[in-house]
Amino acid sequence: MMPEYGHALLCLALGVALLLSVYPLWGVARATRG
């Protein structure tokens, strides 16, 4: 596997993990505010 693909997959995995960790917190904050 070429390094570019590994780097892209690493960034993608980081983005998904960040989204999955931030999304529930954002939903709770939005629910409590509403």
UniProtKB/TrEMBL annotation:
One of its GO terms (molecular function) is lyase activity. The keyword Lyase applies. Keywords: Lyase. This is Cytochrome c heme lyase subunit CcmF. It comes from Salmonella enterica I.
